[in-house]
Structures are given as structure tokens and as C-alpha cells.
Amino acid sequence: MSTGKILVLAEKPDMGRNIAQVIEPRAKRHRTHMEGERYIITWAIGHLLGLAEPDLYDPKYKRWNFHDLPILPESFKIIASKRTKDQLKMIGELAKQCDSIINACDAGREGQYIFALIEQYWKWKKPVKRLWISDLTPETIRKGFDQLEDASKYANLTSAARARSEADWLIGMNASRAFTTKHRTLLSVGRVQTPVLALIHDREQEIEKFEPDRYFELSAIFEQADTSYKGVRVGDRIRSEEEMEKIRASIEGKPGVIDDFQIKEGKEYPYRLYDLTLLQREANSKFGFSAKKTLDLAQSLYEKHKVITYPRTNSNYVTEQNIPSMHESLRMLQTTDAYRDLADKAEPSRVHKGNKGVCQPVKVEDHHAILPTKKRPGSLSPEEAKIYDLIVRRMLAHFYPPAEYTLYTVMTKVGEESFKTSIKQWTLRGWKELYDQDEKKKKKSAKRSDVGKDEKAGEEPEEWNGTEPFHIDASLPVQVKELSVNAKATQPPKPYTEGTLLKAMEGAGKELENEELRDAMKDAGLGTPATRAATIERLKQVGYVAMSGKRIELTLKGKTAVELIRHAGVQLLTSPEMTGQWERRLSQIASGEASRDAFMEAVRKFTLHVIDCVRKQQSVSGDLLKQIEESGSKSKGGRKTGSKSSGATKKAAAKKGASEENAGSTSSADSSGERIGFGDCPRPGCGGTIIEGRKGYGCTHYKQGCKFVIWKEQHTLQKTISTTMLQSLLSKGHTQMLTFTVKGSKFKGRLVLQDKATGDLNVERES
């Protein structure tokens, strides 16, 4: 029976209670809801419903069988989570008592989806309004209720959310079952998970194949009057000790002259405000926190303590409406013991709607950057306090002046050799004062670490700590007081940490050949800020990666998964390209520019293609399966986790493969040591297969005289041939459109296979 009240459905209990405190401060509290005179406030507990498992469509799917694939439901069934079914039932009963409903779930695609499934489950026909807010402060909640909009405005966003979920289900369920049943070991595949795994795989391959370039560096200490400075020789690298000694002898004891002396003034502006990924990266770097841990701490600061704004954001900027709240937060910080001194030095006039380092409404989508609210922090745990401190200082920095410095560049010539000196002298610390303690720690750490081996170590300007400006007279000679020789070597790429992997996920797609897809992913990357942490955790859970300190290491199972997927001929599953295509289309569906039905039909066709490719693939050897099982059984306590197939169920793997942030993959040699073929050799009458070598892609019939090879590094064309480009060259004879740079000018063109007998390439300019 209706009471004439309005049901407010929040996404989580804390959010619901915060809303109730504002709109119904005298509401009667119940375990599952709060009831006031006008509103009944209840909540989901995250996802109360999800897409049903395959066996609910047909019992035969309980048993994984390759011949039962594909699984392509005409319409998707939803099922309630057993853990939270009582709360779902209560929501349905409360809705019967109300005349209308307010969707107060998170303002974003996933929040929209959570509400949509509940609405579908209970078959509601009541009027629905949408609350769209970015933080849980009383002022924002009141303003949000004053500006409620009709739910129909968000119908396209709901459609995009459903399409994302159902498409992930199709790929995850079908690809995971196909690869698992074909190769007799549990292999989880998904749209985002698998390209992320491929990033880790490819980085390890780069490290493994890296050949250091060894050389010698010559540096000198110069002196003029009371000024001494260090210079590093510039020019071609010195490869041998003989060459080094010859150069050293040619300049020893000779005076130097100042060939060039330049002075430039510069400024450094504050770092961007935090989005979630940037916060996770910094917390991993500074504190060693995992991405999931940082997200959990930020969520606690938002929901439990209400001292920061919504954390699951992808924006580093605010809108004009947020500027007053930043000033309110500053005034609050001036009343706290921890931040009073820093907040008192802030200059409020620096944060305004014209400050593009802070306010850029066009770069704010669902939520603005993470900010402290005006609520005073109470008793935070030590770890919560660390995350809160990062967010506070990042905002405070924008109330400080930019840091100012003078950069001195000296070119000193001794004989025929030139030495370069770069010196930076800070004239105003400005916002950097907030981070001076961090700078001191970094310097101590740098002294302890062996930076001498890093070829980039000498490129950073030396800091001049004198009270007087650095000064030399360019018309006078300088004395060479000391010569030093250091043996150096170029360094391989570093293994991923969670912080650097998050950065790679965020920037994934920037190397895509297709410019339209590159644009689609430039603000998206792999996954979303809210789900990247879960993707990394999933890779650990299924035994694809393990942690070694901060480093992420690929297990044998993870290596095998990437290479099997690539060997099957579905390289798109390991590339960011598919996610780029999906995100572009989902964005168009959300804005009403594209059809959901057409998108889902394309996903179904791709699912059929994946299954067809796996069907033709040769199963892995029993020896490799045994190695995977053994590597998994040796793992203990979360260290170096290998395959977990002995303990994990196929059902769990498929669920993980079908979740939002799982994705597919591509590579070149299988884990049993056998080379994987990319295609037939183009040389007429050869009959060989193209495989990957250390420096190029060559033919298996090389012993029979085949000279076909495509070198990975095409120095004259200034391109590195990726496996995706190789596939295009072998199948089509050309790559997609690329950008080339010759003598500073850019042009569009394709790489074409000029000679099928040798593998020589050429550039075909766009006409």
C-alpha cells in the first residue's frame, strides 16, 4: 500500500545515511533503510544483481564443452546475489510503499547500471528522478535535490552501461571456455584483463632481449676564481678505453674556454589535481600501497569520514561551481593543527575560474578532481592520513605561487672537446615548499642508489645551493682541476610496479596506428579509474602475475596465456585496439550517436571469430601443462603465484573473464619453446612460416636458402615493426596509415612490402 512517500535509492549504506542526514534529519533508523516524513532512504550494497551464468540458459552449460560454443543469449537474464538478496527484497517492498523513486547511485556509467538492474528486476513503472552529485557534503546534497532531473535524460547512458556489461559477458564467457577446454588448463580471458597482461608480458620480453650499449663518460671539474662547476663531455659516445685515454691525454693540463654561457629564467607550476589513477600511482611510489589499497582508503575517506570528494574520477580539473568549495576547504585547513601553518601561507586569490591549471570545465565529465571537503578530519588511521595528506597538499599547492628558478647553461671547450654544464638555482620555492621534506628524502635515496649506471642521470640540471647567483666571466679562461672517467651502459626498461602499470593502462592506445581509435582512448586507456585496481588484483588471483616486492612478475601461466591467445590469430584480444573501438562506440551510444543493437551484433560476430580461431589451434603439450601445474603448486603466501587452476573453479574464471575490466590479447613464441608462426612466407614457392627472431621476423626455411626477413628496427624508415604491423604486412602487403617524420616535417603514409623475396619495406605516401 502506497504511503505517498518518495523512495531514495543510494548505491551504498554510508551514502544513503549521509543523504538521510540532510533530507530527513529526524528519520527513523532501520537496518535496511531510514524513514522520514517525506522520504524513505534505502541502499544497494554495490552490485545486488548480475548477468546470469550460462547454465541458467541451458543446464548443458554446467559442463564446459568446446562443442557447445558459442553461447549467445537472445536476451540476457539477471540473477540476484545470494549474499545480498535480503536487501534486494527490502528495496522491492519499500518501493511498493512509494509513489516515485530517486536514483541516488553513483553519478557515472556503473552507478546507472546498478540502478537499472534493480529497476528491471522489480519491473518498476513508477516515475524516476536522477540525483547527480560529486561529493557527500550537506551543501552538495541539498543542491542536488534542488536540481533533480528526469531519469529519461540518462536513458542513453543506461543503454551504454548495459552494452558494456553484456559485451564483456559474451567475450569473457566464450573466450575463457574456448581457451580453457582447448588447452586443458584454466585460462581466463577478457577485454581489459588480457591487454593488461600483454603489457606485462611484452615489458618482460623487452627486458629479456635488451642488449646494453656500453660506453665511457668523461667529466671535468672546472674552476674560475671562486667558482667551480662540473661539465660532462658531449659528442659521439666513447666506446673503448683506448679512445678514452687518447681523448683524456689530448686535454689534460690544458685550459678551457667558455664557448657559450646562457641564463634563462623559468617557472614550475603546481602538479595537476588528483584523479584516482594519479593518486594510486603516487601512493604506490611513496608508500608501496597497491592500487586496491589506495582505492579502499580513498573510498573510506569519502564515505566514512566525508573528508574528500568522490574518488573514482578520471578528471584532474574542476568546474567554476567547485571554486567556492576549494576556498571553504582552505579556510577549514587554517583551523587545523596539522595544516594551519601551510594554509596560512596560501594566497586565496590564486584559485579562480580563470586559472586553467585548476578550472577547465570541458575536461570534467562525470566528476571533478579529488579535493578535500570542508569537513575537519577526525581520527583517521595512519594509512588514511597518508592519502588525505597527499590530497590536501595537492590542492594547497594551487594556492601558492609558482616556483621560480634561473637555469644556467655553460659550454666549456678544452682542445677539441666540449663539456656541457646545466645548473638550476631556485629563486622562489613557491608551492614546492609543501614538498620540501619529500625532496630531502629523494636526495638521500639518490645518494644511496647507484645512479652512475643510468645514462639519464647526467641529464638533470645540478642544483646550485649557494646564496649568491652562479657567476662566471665568459671572456676569461677556466682551469681543469679534475678529470673523471665513468663506465656507463644504457639500461633496460624497468619491470612494472603497480604504479607504473597504472600509468601504462591509462596511456594504453597512444601507439595505435589508427588515429581515430587513438583519439577514442586518449582520455580512457585500459579500464576506468574505478576498475583498474580490480583488474590488477584479478591478474594476481588467477595466477597470471605475482608480486616480488613492488615489482610485478609474469608467471609461466601468464606467459602461456598471452602467447596462446596471440598464436590463435586473435591478436586483437591482447591489443588496446579492441578496447579503443569499444570505448569509442560506447561513448557514442551514451550520447545517442550510435546504435546499441549494431554494437552488440558486432560483438557477437567477433565472439564467433574467436571461437573459430581457437578451434583451428593446436593444443599445448602435456609437458607445458605439467610445468604450469608445478609452478602453481610451488607458490606460497601470495609470492610468485603460478597457475591456480588446481584450486580455482572454471566458473570463477569465466566470471572474471566476463567482468567489466577483463580483455583479450597477442604474441610470438609459445611457452614450450616452440616458435609461433605469424603466417606463410610471402616468397613465391617457399612454403615456410614467418617466425620471430631476436632482431627480426624471418622464415623457417632459411636453412633451405630463403632470404626473407623483416627487421624489427627499420632505421631508415624510423619505425619499429610491431607484431600487429607484421600481421598487416603479411596478410595485406601494407600497414595501416602511419605518421612519418623526415627532417622535421611530418607526412602520412603506409609501410609496404616492396620485395616479397627479401622482406624489404618502403614507404607509400598518402596521395
Describe what this molecule looks like in 3D.
- The protein is α+β, with helices and mostly antiparallel strands and 767 residues long.
- It contains 22 helices and 28 strands.
- The protein folds into five domains: 5-147, Rossmann fold (3-Layer(aba) Sandwich); 178-208 and 494-632, Topoisomerase I, domain 2, CATH 1.10.460; 214-269 and 404-443 and 459-489, Topoisomerase I, domain 3 (Distorted Sandwich); 276-401, Topoisomerase I, domain 4 (Orthogonal Bundle), CATH 1.10.290.10; 677-765, no CATH class.
- A seven-stranded mixed β-sheet has the order 2-3-4-1-7-8-9, sandwiched between helices. Strands 11, 12, 13, 14, 15, 16 and 17 form a seven-stranded mixed β-sheet that branches.
- Strand 18 (545-548) and strand 19 (551-554) form a beta hairpin.
- Keywords: DNA-binding, Isomerase, Magnesium, Metal-binding, Topoisomerase.
- GO terms for molecular function: DNA binding; DNA topoisomerase type I (single strand cut, ATP-independent) activity; metal ion binding.
- It catalyses: ATP-independent breakage of single-stranded DNA, followed by passage and rejoining.
- Belongs to the type IA topoisomerase family.
CATH homologous superfamily caption of the largest domain: Topoisomerase I, domain 2
The main sheet comes to: 7 strands, mixed
Q: Oligomerization state of this entry?
A: single chain
Number of helices: 22
Which sequence of strands runs across the widest sheet?
2-3-4-1-7-8-9
Write down the domain tally. Answer: 5
Q: Architecture of the largest domain, CATH level 2?
A: Orthogonal Bundle
Using the coordinates above, name the CATH class of the largest domain: Mainly Alpha
CATH fold call of the largest domain: Topoisomerase I, domain 2
Characterize the overall form: flat
Low-confidence stretches: 446-458, 636-649, 659-675
**What is the total tally of β strands?**
28
User: What share of the residues does DSSP label as strand, in percent?
Assistant: 15-25%
The chain-level mean pLDDT equals 86
Rg of Cα set: 30 Å
- Cα(first) to Cα(last) distance is 72 Å
Helical/strand content category: alpha+beta
Percent of residues in helices: 25-40%
Domain Topo IA-type catalytic: 154-611
Organism: Paenibacillus aquistagni
Keywords: DNA-binding, Isomerase, Magnesium, Metal-binding, Topoisomerase
Pfam families: Topoisom_bac (PF01131), Toprim (PF01751)
